[in-house]
Every structure is written in C-alpha cells, then in structure tokens.
Amino acid sequence: MANASGFFSPPVPRMRRNIQPSIGIFRSGFCFSEGNFRRVVCSSGIEGAEKHVSPSESRLPKLVSKGCKLVGCGSAVPALSVSNDDLAKIVDTSDQWISVRTGIRNRRVISGKESLKNLAVQAARKALEMADFDPNDLDLILMCTSTPEDLFGAAPQVQRELGCRKTPLAYDITAACSGFVLGLVSAACHIRGGGFHNVLVIGADGISRLVDWTDRGTCILFGDAAGAVLVQACDAEEDGLLSFDLHSDGEGGRHLGVPINDNKTSDLLGSNGSVLDFPPKRSSYSCIQMNGQEVFRFAVRCVPQSIESALGKAGLVAASIDWLLLHQANQRIIDAVATRLEFPQEKVISNLANYGNTSAASIPLALDEAVRSGKVKPGHTIATAGFGAGLTWGSAIIRWG
C-alpha cells in the first residue's frame, strides 16, 4: 500500500513570514515548513541528503510561497438519456430495483457523432468562459480519463481543439474514478513546484463503451460526461487547495477493473511443430468487471478515513466544511460516508440520480452544477473524495473561488 501526504496552508492566524523553513525531506517529495513557504525536493528518506549530491546531478530545492485557486468550472453531457425503464427493456431489472439500490434513475450515453473529446472540449470552454480566460494563456492541460478514444492519450487533441497557439503541455492521467482528485493535486504540484500559472484540469470518461449491457450488476451504474476546472496560481493567503490525502492498494485491484483479453495464437509456427506464441494476435479489453459488495465495503471504510486525514492536515473539522462532494458512485455509499463523518444531508452534493457514475467526470460535473445553481459560493470550503479502480482513493479540502 502506498500513500501520499497533502500539503496545506496553516490555519488562521498564520505564522510570521520571517520564520525560516526547515530542511527535512519526506517520502512524498515535499518538505513542509512553518509559515507560508513550501519546499519542493527530490524524493528521499535521508535528512539533508541533498548535501551529498553535486549541482550537476540535482537542482537545489525550490522555495515556493504561492498557492493555487479554482476560478472556473464547466461540464458537458451527451444528448442521449437512458432511463431505468429503458434498461428494463434489455436486461432483467426495474426502475425500483435500480433506484433503491443505487439512487440512479437516468444516465447519459455517448451516441451518434458525439465523442468524449468533444465533451471534454465543451466542458473546458465553459470553465474558461466562467473565468473570462484566454486558452492561449494556459500552461498545462491535464486530461483525467481512463477511456480515451486514442490509447496514446486525449489531452493533446483537447489542446488542439481549444486552439492553444502556444502549445502548452498536455497529458493524460489514468486513474478512473479517482482521476479528478489526482488531477487537482497534480495541478497544485505543477503550480507550487514547477512555476506553472494556469492549469486546466478535465475529468472525462465514456464508460458506456466498456459496459456489458447484459450484466445488470454493472450496466445500471454508469454514464458518460465531462467536467473541468481552471486552477490558477495565487498568493498563499488565497490558497484554495488546503490539503490532500492520497492512497493506492493494488491488492484490491481484482475487485474492479477492465483487464486485457489474452488472445493467444493457436497457429503452429516453425518446422518442429512448436507453438512460438509469435506474432501475437491483437488484444482487446474486456468489459468492466466489478465485485460490487467488495467495492462498497472498501469505499465506506477508506473514504471517511481519507477525508478525516485531509481535514486534520488542513487544521479543520467536519463541522467547519460547507459541502461534502464525493465521487458519484452509489447513493448508499454517499449516505454512509456522510453519516460516518456526521455531515447533514443538506450539506451533501449529489446529482447521481440524473447521471449515474461518470467516473473521472463525476466530481467536476457535480461541482459545476452546484456552482451555477448558486449552491456553492465563492469562499465555500468543500471536502471532496474520489475512489475506485486500482484500487485508488484520495481526498482534498478545497475552497471555491
């Protein structure tokens, strides 16, 4: 099991700026200090190890005193809406059976000439418009998706469609339902440690393409969507990513995944009649395979722990948080986590009923709707968490605006 600790801004009142930062190095690659400074160093477990590395082998640690804030959001969904009654026509289920067990009533599915790339571009443009921001000023585009239409990645194509003339760096993050939280943390790392100023984080997935529509255990759950946020560098006092907590555990990967089909060659090659297994036949990915009960147990156990850890790093308690925004996987999971953390239902953001589980898109999609409806206002603090395939899970405490 691996984990990463979150960086955070100290709670008010802040320490004086003239306090000197410490020099320790931690496994996460970040060294925290008093005050508003953050030191970014190469990963190491040895205190003061940088003293033994020549300048030609490593750059000196960099002090960063800036924060990052979320200034714009957007989302896009396919036109085709598939209701529980529609599913009941092709698989043995019913609207009541699905809604009671999951809280889902409808989901959106990519069809016709729609594409995941176009949904991502639409969501991105809306986020940039909200922030009144020119795409040519972007430094980085992070495309959080596990279902790109090109296996080599979708981010560069999104960059092209946005018309970014300066060709900013663009790359994909593949972590399924945890992807967007990882994208936010990655954006903050680039801003605080890499000198980036404007990072577009997109969560988008077309899970419907990986669903076995004859399996009622999985086909009822998933939908397609895209959501995006613009993350900008700011003064430390305006910091909008207060802390994070990230984990992964490959032991649980057997409970949720899309493994590749092993299509072995059956041709006999060579004069001696031996099977050489070369050249291999083309491989393809299977449909989503999920042990629903195990995934449920994992989520209701690990997600509250992660949020509590992130709250502790931020110096906050659950009662001080304005909103709880979880990955929209199952309403029973959302309710169980809220109950454990003692969040009242009126402080829980959920749009699962209308869209189902949209994987990496679910958090930014729900955030965008909450912001545009006036529910989430500038200055509101949100505890958010993603969890799913890998298994991976993580949480972040963010401030909107």
UniProtKB/TrEMBL annotation:
Q: What is this protein called?
A: beta-ketoacyl-[acyl-carrier-protein] synthase III
Tell me the GO BP annotations in alphabetical order. fatty acid biosynthetic process
Record EC number = 2.3.1.180
Pathway per its UniProt entry is: Lipid metabolism; fatty acid biosynthesis
Which family does the record claim for this protein? Answer: Belongs to the thiolase-like superfamily. FabH family.
List the PANTHER family. 3-OXOACYL-[ACYL-CARRIER-PROTEIN] SYNTHASE, BETA-KETOACYL-[ACYL-CARRIER-PROTEIN] SYNTHASE III, CHLOROPLASTIC
Q: Does the keyword Acyltransferase apply?
A: no
Query: What positions does the domain Beta-ketoacyl-[acyl-carrier-protein] synthase III C-terminal occupy?
Result: 312-400
Q: Read off the InterPro entries from this record.
A: ACP_syn_III_C (IPR013747), ACP_syn_III_N (IPR013751), FabH (IPR004655), Thiolase-like (IPR016039)
Cross-referenced NCBIfam families, in alphabetical order? fabH, PRK09352.1
What is the role of the protein in this entry?
A: Catalyzes the condensation reaction of fatty acid synthesis by the addition to an acyl acceptor of two carbons from malonyl-ACP. KAS III catalyzes the first condensation reaction which initiates fatty acid synthesis and may therefore play a role in governing the total rate of fatty acid production. Possesses both acetoacetyl-ACP synthase and acetyl transacylase activities.
Q: Which UniProt keywords apply?
A: Fatty acid biosynthesis, Fatty acid metabolism, Lipid biosynthesis, Lipid metabolism, Transferase
This entry carries the following GO cellular component terms, namely: chloroplast
Taxonomic lineage of this organism? Eukaryota, Viridiplantae, Streptophyta, Embryophyta, Tracheophyta
Which reaction is catalysed here?
A: malonyl-[ACP] + acetyl-CoA + H(+) = 3-oxobutanoyl-[ACP] + CO2 + CoA
Molecular-function annotations in GO: 3-oxoacyl-[acyl-carrier-protein] synthase activity; beta-ketoacyl-acyl-carrier-protein synthase III activity
Q: Where is the Beta-ketoacyl-[acyl-carrier-protein] synthase III N-terminal domain?
A: 171-250
